[in-house]
From TrEMBL:
Record protein name field: Fluoride-specific ion channel FluC
Subcellular localization(s) per the UniProt record: Cell membrane
Membrane topology according to the record: Multi-pass membrane protein
Reactions catalysed according to its record: fluoride(in) = fluoride(out)
Family: Belongs to the fluoride channel Fluc/FEX (TC 1.A.43) family.
Amino acid sequence: MIVSLLVLAGGAVGAVFRYIIDGYVKATAGKSFPWGTLTVNVLGSALLGAFHGAGTGTNLEALLGTGLCGALTTFSTFELDTVHLIQDGEYGRAAINALGGLLLGAAAFVAFYQLLH
């Protein structure tokens, strides 16, 4: 039961952070490319890599990894953004978003994992 409550608490914070960060990035960078989604996904991947690399343990992993990072990042919005770019005929941007999001997220995870491992 405690692990579920930790995931809930971390998720509440992560969702609010995602809303704030995504809104700020969209207001700053504009909406012609899904920079907000890319930012939260790469940030969440970096944080998850750091938490996992530091060996946080079950309870902290639930709070920070599953909860915080799980709610901060958004695969479904990443997919939706890519589909919208395709529907708008922005095939190059869609490819950059899809490949860039996956590669940058993986690189951020590995870099921060290695940094703290």
